Amino acid sequence: MDSLFAREMGEVENAFLAAPFEADGWNAALRLLARRTRSTRAQLLGIGAEATLFNFMPDIDPAYQREFLEIEGWRPEVNWRVAVSARPLEILSEAHYDIARQHSGTDDYEEHIRCWDGVHGCQTALVEGEGFLVGLAALRSEDDGRTEQRDRKLFAAGATYALAAVRMQQAIAQRGAAMTVGAFDAIGVAAFLIDRHGAVAALSAAAEAIVGAGGALCLRRGRLGAARRDADALLQAGLARALDDVLAEGASAEGAMQQYWIGSPEEPEGGLLCELFRLPQREWDFGFEPRVLVVARRAADIPAMRTAPLRAALGLTAAEAEIALRLANGEARETIANGRGTSAQTLGTQIKSILRKSEVGREAELAALVNRLLR
Length: 375
Prior knowledge:
Elements: H1 3-18, H2 25-36, E1 41-48, E2 52-56, H3 62-70, H4 80-83, H5 94-101, H6 107-115, E3 120-129, E4 132-140, H7 149-186, E5 190-194, E6 200-203, H8 205-211, E7 217-220, E8 223-226, H9 229-243, H10 245-248, E9 257-262, E10 272-278, E11 292-297, H11 308-314, H12 318-328, H13 333-340, H14 344-358, H15 363-374
Antiparallel strand pairs: 1-2, 1-4, 3-4, 5-6, 5-11, 7-8, 9-10, 10-11
């Protein structure tokens, strides 16, 4: 190994190993890899079963990203780079591309790569799992020409360090999730962190107690669900909306928080108000960061601010709003009276007032109204 190559490889190693810890670290590492492999640019690409998860290239015009999505460039039948397959860290280059082009690819993709200087180059898979792949590539224009052995050798070394950096980014994300649920533990809140695939990435101790109690919520194969079928359908639809990348990219904050009343099939007092919060995406999100926070609260634990919609819409007092929530939760009158330290007669008078203000005749109608307002 000549001294120049060793020095350049050392620079690439240092850049990638610093990438997860520096503000512009990934951009710097990809720029350096491109220079050292004499390429126009370097790319870090994440592909899911049905979509691009991320597509990072420093200094690329935003129009590139829009065009890549428009032509569905993550599909192997469209993009011959995706169609070629190999083991992780196995280097593929123009010789493999020539073969793949004969069986895959579209005219749209060919025009796309010529426009954005990506006709030649080399690539490798870094992380490969079920329905998920993270790949690294060096892209070269027609003027750059094909890669040479030295370029591919340095790219291979860089890929090893890039893999280590991706794993570090994953560890940081997991550590961040653990610290987040630790904060919820400190205040006794039942919190679930949901990853981009819909699986529970971490949960607080109070959340563990809820799903282990056989009540309103449960875990099925690592995913959060509701015990009742109708409630589960609502919860899954809400999680799907919160995880929707198109919605997440919208400029409006509408839909950033959703509320669902999840009743318990066996314990009337075991119902929960589930609040779904869509978490902001970081600039460098490899799919390891949690995407949705779910906070579950029993009626008695719901902060007063959460009763504001009831008080505003129905003209209830703070005490009446709490009672309405607990009735909607399915709690018996006796349980509510004992919990509030009042007599059954006093509670009955308050319930009559609530029904009158709400303009409903029965407690079941009130429960349905409260649930609609909370959502």
